[in-house]
Amino acid sequence: MFKRPFQKREFVEQFWFIASVTILPTALVSIPFGAVIALQVGSLTQQLGAQSFTGGASVLAVIQQASPLIVALLISGAGGSAICADIGSRTIREEMDAMEVMGVSPVQRLIVPRVLAAMLVAILLNGLVSVVGVLGGYFFNVIMQGGTPGAYLASFSALAQLPDLYVSELKALIFGFIAGVVASYRGLNPGSGPKGVGDAVNQSVVITFLLLFFVNLVLTAIYLQIVPAKGS
Fold first, then answer.
1. Helix, strand or coil, per DSSP, at residue 68
2. What is the C-alpha to C-alpha distance for residues 147 and 52, in angstroms, rounded to an integer?
């Protein structure tokens, strides 16, 4: 990553490509995610007689858990599969071997810009999903369930804290790194022929999904142990 020269043009092209194929699906997926969380949490808090905490609970669920996972799944499903297919097709055409013969590192030339682009897109998309998910949850809680806007916002400010956003962005960064690395690794090691590239793409998506859920569990457990709840 720190070896010169850095492939700026490749990085910009990959950043734009990954962002272009993930922005719209991410925004569309975040709306029902935020709505489902808001409706479920709102129904549960009504049963418990704690409607005033609906806003804080649903917003924290969106920011801490749903937003990074949505971004990671779409980055790996859309961007990661494209990266794996591109690298895999280059590998079976022996372009990687040709680059090594010419003294060009395929990792520095092709892999590093793609992984960094996936990480940067994941961070930016995480902010988009957080905003859209929170707005969707606000709409469905206030409009559909008859909640009060003041109580929704007050509970959010009472329960949420700035480290919640920090850990969300950190998760998105790590998830983007995992998606880029797994897709690149499987692209560099496909089976023989076009079928091998297709199998590598499928494997990269499945492996990334499994790693994401495991890493999310570990990061959430560490965060809850290190950062105390607000007001505790």
1. helix
2. 9
Tokens encoding 94? 């022996």
Give the Cα separation of 130 and 113 in Å (integer): 26
Contacts of 195 (CB under 8 A, 6+ apart): none
Which two three-digit tokens encode residue 212? 């994401």
Q: How many CB atoms lie within 10 A of CB 100?
A: 11
Measured between alpha carbons, how far is 98 from 194 in angstroms, rounded to an integer? 19
DSSP secondary structure, 69-114, as one string: HHHHHHIIIIIIHHHHHHHHHHHHTTHHHHHHHTT--HIIIIIHHH
DSSP helix/strand/coil, 3 = coil
Q: Output the six-digit token pair for 95.
A: 């372009």
Q: Please report, for residues 9, 10, 14, 148, the alpha-carbon distance to residue 5 in angstroms, rounded to integers and kept in the order given.
A: 11, 12, 17, 56
DSSP letter for 160, please: -
Residue written as token pair 């549960």: 44
Which tokens in the block code for residue 74?
């779409």
Of the candidates 204, 164, 161, the one whose C-alpha atom is nearest the C-alpha of residue 181 is 204
* pTM of the shown model: 0.85
Instruction: Measure the CA dihedral 189/192/193/198, to 10°.
Output: -50
Query: pLDDT tens, 158-206?
Result: 677 778 888 888 988 999 999 999 999 998 888 777 788 888 888 888 8
The whole-number pLDDT of residue 77 equals 83
